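Q: Hi! First time doing this. I have a protein sequence and I read that you can turn it into a structure. Is that right? Here it is:
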Amino acid sequence: MAKIITVTKEGLKSLQDELNERKGVKRAEIKEAIKIARGFGDLSENSEYDEAREAQAKNEHRILELEEMLKNVVVIEESETNSNRITLGKTVKVRNEKTGKEISYDIVGPTETDPFAHRISDQSPIGQALIGAQVGDTVTAEAPVGQIKFTVLEIAKTV
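A: Yes, that's right. Below is the predicted 3D structure, encoded as structure tokens:
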């Protein structure tokens, strides 16, 4: 059975854009690279040809992955979520109870994560701990460094 993938509207658009880019522009670029590499002669010792074929295989594999994801995607609409609780598509401001440091996270689907931009998956340890919490709640996340306690300070719709 295929795994359901939850995404925001922006996440769905990103997946669709990547698929279109890979099927159109990327395929054409690789096809041209293969054509040029064939012109270099003997294919058995042609590293440019080998590289282009490898790029083609990787691109086609990613296209299949994206198509499979899009078959099983569920878009979370803002109207479907409780505005008082943390859900996918929300931005949450929390305070680390040990350090006192405040940080904001966007809660997104697993295909949209970017830890450096504080976009965490609802399936990550911190994301799982935060899902369903309300302002004022203290939650505990199991992280590689041990347990981390967060107090929820604010919940807003991700812009």
